[in-house]
Amino acid sequence: MGEDNGVNVLIVDDHHVVRRGLVFFLNTQKEINVVGEASNGKEAVERVKELQPDVVLMDLVMPVMDGVEATKKIKELSPHTKILILTSFSDVDHVIPAIRAGASGYQLKDVEPDQLVQVIISVYRGENQLHPKVTTHLMTHVSKGGDRKEQLIEVLTKREKEVLAEIAKGKSNKEIAAALMITEKTVKTHVSNILAKLNLADRTQAALYAVKHLRL
Q1: What is the C-alpha to C-alpha distance for residues 25 and 33, in angstroms, rounded to an integer?
Q2: What is the number of alpha carbons within 13 Å of residue 32 lying toward its C-beta?
Q3: What is the pLDDT of residue 31?
Q4: Which residue stretches of the chain are H helix?
Q5: What is the pTM for the complete model shown?
Q6: Given this model, what pLDDT does residue 201 score?
Q7: pLDDT at residue 32 in the model
Q8: Cα 77 to Cα 210: distance, rounded to the nearest angstrom
Q9: What one-character DSSP code corresponds to residue 3?
Q10: Chunked in runs of 10, what are the mean pLDDT values of the chain (216 residues)?
Q11: In terms of C-beta density within 10 A (0-12 exposed, 13-18 middle, 19 or more buried), how is residue 12 classed?
Q12: Residues 201, 54, 87, 46: is their CA dihedral positive or negative?
């Protein structure tokens, strides 16, 4: 895990009482290190640059910059940072944009405190953690979708689309890293995210997908 054998967490919520309550509770958990707070999405992006947390606990409806936009920017800035949405809203208009933006988990604020700790740890370990209500909305959305593969391209961040385009050119991770001026480790993370988001088995499938859907 992060420093001191705990998951480093940034808490983002515009309600001071909620934020302080989360800080107080999570600070009592030996598996969690609260490394910082933010009261809106813009602050969250700046704090991620500064603190490089493992997990961001993100509210959705906030002033200045909402949680969806902040999630997009954070995933482009720091692909290794996991985003766990913690909100009061479970409707499709909030759920789908958050997942598309790159959130690894989506929980409601009525979650039991002990369960929240386990969800944070699970998200840090790379597991997707969705509230049952959220899963229902996602399944409904998918079943109503038209060309699912066509729609899936929209879940990729701008950087992931750039990496996918390079994969289609037959480049290795090292070559992609040089072309995009990022580290090879970051490329590996992007590739893993691309394969997971697009439900693809390998780079060959990714290249074929890119040719069809990126209009290369």
Answers
A1: 11
A2: 26
A3: 93
A4: 16-26, 41-51, 67-77, 92-101, 113-124, 132-144, 148-152, 158-168, 173-180, 184-197, 203-213
A5: 0.64
A6: 81
A7: 96
A8: 23
A9: G
A10: 73 95 94 96 96 96 93 93 92 80 89 92 85 67 52 81 91 94 94 87 84 74
A11: buried
A12: negative
Residue 21 amino acid letter: G
User: Quick one: which of 78, 215, 64, 41 has its CA closest to 159?
Assistant: 78
Structural tokens at position 47? 């704090």
The tally of CA atoms less than 13 A away on the side-chain side of residue 130 is 17
Q: Hey, what are 74's tokens?
A: 């954070």
Cα separation, 26 vs 34, whole angstroms: 7
> How high is the pLDDT of residue 213?
80
* Residues with Cβ within 8 Å of residue 43, at least 6 apart in sequence: 12, 64
Confirm if 98 and 153 have CB atoms less than 8 A apart: no
- Which H or E element spans position 177? helix 173-180
* Residue-level pLDDT at 185: 93
**Strand order across the 129-130 sheet:** 32-38, 7-12, 55-58, 82-87, 105-108, 129-130
Q: How far apart are CA 13 and CA 154, in angstroms?
A: 26
The pLDDT, as a whole number, for residue 97 is 84
Beta-carbon count within 10 A of 62 CB: 22
103, 84 contact by CB (below 8 A): yes
Dihedral-angle region of residue 61 (phi above 0 means left; psi in -120 to 50 means alpha; beta otherwise):
beta
Could you give the angle at which helices 173-180 and 184-197 cross, rounded to 10 degrees? 110
Question: Among 100, 52, 96, which Cα is nearest to 74's?
Answer: 52
